Amino acid sequence: MVNNELSKFKPAKPFLKWAGGKTQLIFQLESRLPDYVLDSKVIERYVEPFVGGGAIFFFLKSNYLVKNSFLLDVNPELIMAYKVIQKDHLKISSLLNEIEYEHLQKSEDSRKRNYYFIRDAYNEQLAQIDYDVYNEQWIQRAAYLIFLNKTCYNGLFRLNRNGKFNVPFGRYRNPSICDEVNIKLVHQALKNTKLLCADFSRAGEFIEKDSLVYLDPPYRPLSSTSYFTNYSRQGFDEQDQIKLAQFFKKMDKKGSHLILSNSDPKNRDPNDDFFDRLYSGYKIERVPAKRNINANPNKRGPINELIVRNY
Ligand SMILES: C[S@@+](CC[C@H](N)C(=O)[O-])C[C@H]1O[C@@H](n2cnc3c(N)ncnc32)[C@H](O)[C@@H]1O
Question: What is the DSSP string of 72-86?
Fold first, then answer.
């Protein structure tokens, strides 16, 4: 059973390409949902403290009746874009249509100039943005973010130390910048959804007995050169992984159903039992997964992902 007419025909999908996106892992995760969810197809309360591109959220919204959702992420640009689509999807669609129309008319060289022009405008906006109060400027900024995400090299969202977007231009023959239908589906999927730009620990305010909680934190880097954790200015180090494990235990005591994914350090070092120790006493499984976002194509290959559950 689904929430609305449109999604009977087409499911909503992530509107941004996001590093660590979980599209590859959807069925591994779905088969591990609690039995009562699989049987009833109903999720009363869903909480996702590291929502990113939201691959799992959109999948669940299209295939289950998800009554109330709470999505958090520490990245203010990402949450801004979600809120704009939640509130003003028609305005952002029309802005993106204009941007797309103008961009695709240009030659390759002028597209490149246009990309850097918009990237500069996006970075200059940073100083004047009020992240706390919803305003018209958010609509343009969210449209720029989507444009940059669809046209940048490798589809990565990466900020430098000053919070500036610094990914170079990517060469795409026909980038789809405005997917109007999906923006509408995303808008519909975001009904009955609370969005919050905050640290994962704030998710505790929304987690109750029987809530379903999916946790997909930034990976513990597989290699010292991997920049998987650079989603925002703040990194996510081993101390954060330890705090997250403590949070997991606390939420377990509340009686919620927790499912967490992470990189498996045993891919690199079979003796690395960091997560086995952190989550000892819980159900830990290793499943094959393919990582897409890697600047070096030679390093893209099959590796295991960890799935931890408290049920
Ligand atoms: C692996 S990604 C999630 C990917 C998501 N499952 C998807 O399918 O796109 C991790 C996310 O955690 C966010 N993040 C990093 N540190 C955080 C923190 N302390 N609290 C909440 N979110 C955080 C990042 O901005 C990023 O979007």
Answer: EES-HHHHHHHHHHH
Task: Name which residue sits closest to atom 19 of ligand 1, judged by CA.
Answer: 199
Give the Cα separation of 215 and 189 in Å (integer).
19
Position 122 pLDDT exceeds 90: yes
Q: What CATH number should be reported for the domain whose range is 6-74+198-309? A: 3.40.50.150
Which of 157, 164, 93 is closest to 125 using CA atoms?
164
Residue 128's Cα: distance from chain center in Å?
Answer: 25
Please provide the average confidence, as pLDDT, over all residues in the chain. Answer: 90
Domain boundaries, the chain: 6-74+198-309, 78-181
Question: Which helix or strand (DSSP H or E) is residue 304 part of?
Answer: strand 302-309
Q: Inform me whether the pLDDT recorded for 223 exceeds 70.
A: no
pTM, rounded to two decimals: 0.92
> Residue whose CA is closest, atom 26 of ligand 1?
52
| C-alpha atoms less than 13 angstroms from C-alpha of 131 in its C-beta half-sphere | 13
